[in-house]
């Protein structure tokens, strides 16, 4: 049974979505919120921002939802999804702990792989079908 590149792409994006979701929830729960109020409010909104974008990636890759693709059409191409994953990797890197380091490196590596693959492939579109039962 041959596995298509689209299925591998979608599976790796699903893993990145799970890692980013966990990183955002972990950061929201683990922060001490002892600095100035404006910095604490900014950190909360940054983590909610990360959680939203991680959920967009997770819902598109794992569940195959089509609505987020209308909002973020860059996820339809390999290059765009690679850039999107790298963007989420920078948010995970901001955790400044081992989980943030390892998950962000995962994001960076697969993002670069998708970008390189997208540069050399003629058909730069990926199709998303539900990976998880609905």
Automatic annotation (TrEMBL):
Q: Which UniProt keywords apply?
A: Membrane, Transmembrane, Transmembrane helix
User: From what superkingdom does this record's organism come?
Assistant: Eukaryota
Membrane-crossing segments per the record: 7-28, 48-65, 72-93, 105-121
Protein name, per record: Transmembrane protein
UniProt source species? Thraustotheca clavata
